[in-house]
Design brief:
Chain lengths: 320, 320
């Protein structure tokens, strides 16, 4: 195997994370910079180029010591021409050309991929995915995103939306989603979804609960607060968490029933609730899965945390 | 492209279908024999060998004029050692070795695949699938089966159950399924499922309906009868068909929301109800799909009928 290195770049709305990795996926250096979304985000790509060049100089490394740069980005990626559209959190109004521009600016070949898919690839390669050929990754953050790896390849689908499992319909009579339909997984199992369910259930709850008292008092709560209270057996918080886990289990079980992945991996902020969350989701999944799936598909918590993005981005680079 | 030919074999519980095809998928000859399941099905593989050899002789063809034989079979296929297990409708009690035995008996290389996956590959290659890279195929027969093609490859999953979408849970409080859980798509949208729904709804139905009268009279009905009556606006039949199509639309929309295939294709006996069925399923799907999916995934009726199996089996053969 080559001694050359990989560069993984995880472009987010707040920070841009960088790492230099071996071809085996070990991180040797990492750093990050703020994402400057001023001037329609036109400074972002020059900033990425400058930061890479600056660090290579600092580490006394040359472009030809690298196989490539992998970049995970928000937005819809056009793989043919290497452009990105619709990355609204970066203020990009028009198509941008990261592949062309970063290759030119660094002298290193660039491969790009959607950020949720990159996190999925990272967890698959070096995290909970154990490098399995079939992995479904769901990230429970502000929204619910995901990525599907089947036969060892990330799926894009006909319109680039494969793996966007946040918009699987869980409850046809449920909450309205920003996507325009009702009862999407994202309206329930995202960080904002958990809080929405809490407020909804609180309005009809009459028992004794600290969560209820906090909400009635007009205080802000977070998904973490809800899970923390549920861990302390707060009655309303338990009702909320049970509904969230049941809904998540239903959606993930049906994806598992269709795809029979080796692992379903839960990541993102809400997954910080850990085994308390995954045990409940697992129980719900098993209720809705048929025998072969129960025997061959397992639920796991993501293990890479913040590094999933840079590792997954680096995994995009084809190493001969 | 080579002038050599392909042989597709579709092994079913009642008949074994054979075809000789060009590498472009055109059928040049086809025939079929009865499946002899006596003697624990031990005569099936010898019968396949004899029938191929007999027909090659009849057409004055030699083994070296063929690239390979593709075989679609019920049961669970072990791709490593070329064996099949659990094909209960063929009376096979133990593992059988079709790859080894048919290669030896004909002198032609053999590739095998699950029967539902083979039908999916056939529809994808020469039928409604338009040779797209991402196709979900669902077959509504005695049961509900299916196959998923993603990135141009059939998916097997970790336990070989990828694409078995008949056991997606549609209604957690629904009918008990043979698989042991409740509300599987198969309990509603298979031929037997449609009849089950009809009987269930009839028991609580009080209006005027020929379907109700037929059932109350103790007559047997088929899924086709229910769809035929619904087409004539029979009130109870419409209630049944609406529930079946709504359930199917919900399940298929969520698969589409996860995988974003180019086409979702409905085949099998129940799909003979044609556009009447697919229009209703399409309307339900669109209700449960988010915008990108509505714009890039389309529902279609299967177009190959009985030939999907032999064509899909032939497509298993790698042509250089």
């Amino acid at each position: 195997m080559t001694d050359k290195k990989l560069i993984g770049v995880d472009l987010g709305g707040t920070t841009i994370k960088f790492a230099i990795l071996t071809v085996k996926g070990e991180i040797q250096q990492k750093w990050s910079i703020e994402t400057n979304i001023l001037s329609d985000g036109q400074l972002i790509i020059p900033d990425i180029i400058d930061s890479i060049n600056h660090h290579l100089k600092m580490y006394s490394m040359e472009a030809d010591q690298f196989v490539g740069i992998g970049l995970g980005s928000p937005g819809t990626i056009n793989f043919k021409d290497g452009t990105i559209k619709g990355a609204y959190n970066l203020n990009w109004q028009n198509s941008v050309y990261p592949v062309r521009d970063i290759e030119k600016g660094t002298g290193i070949p660039v491969t790009i991929e959607n950020d949720a898919n990159v996190a999925a690839l990272g967890e698959r390669w070096m995290g909970a995915g154990n490098n399995a050929d079939d992995v479904v990754f769901v990230t429970l953050g502000t929204g619910v995103g995901g990525g599907i790896i089947a036969n060892g390849q990330i799926l894009h689908g006909a319109g680039g939306a494969a793996g966007e499992i946040g918009h699987v319909t869980v409850d046809p009579d449920g909450f309205m989603c920003t996507c325009g339909k009702r009862g999407c997984l994202e309206t329930i199992a995202s960080a904002t979804g958990v809080v929405r369910v809490a407020r909804d259930r609180a309005s009809e709850y009459a028992g004794k609960s600290e969560l209820k008292a906090t909400l009635d008092d007009g205080q802000d709560i977070s998904a973490k607060d809800v899970f923390d209270l549920a861990k302390e057996n707060d009655d309303l918080a338990m009702i909320v968490v049970d509904y969230v886990c049941e809904s998540l289990g239903f959606a993930l079980a049906n994806i598992a029933n269709s795809l029979n992945p080796k692992y379903v991996i839960i990541g993102g902020g809400v997954s910080a609730a850990g085994k308390f969350l995954s045990d409940k989701v697992d129980a719900a999944m098993r209720k809705y899965e048929f025998a072969t799936i129960k025997a061959s598909t397992s639920l796991k918590l993501a293990s890479l945390g913040n590094e999933a993005g840079v590792i997954g981005a680096a995994s995009l680079i084809k190493v001969d």
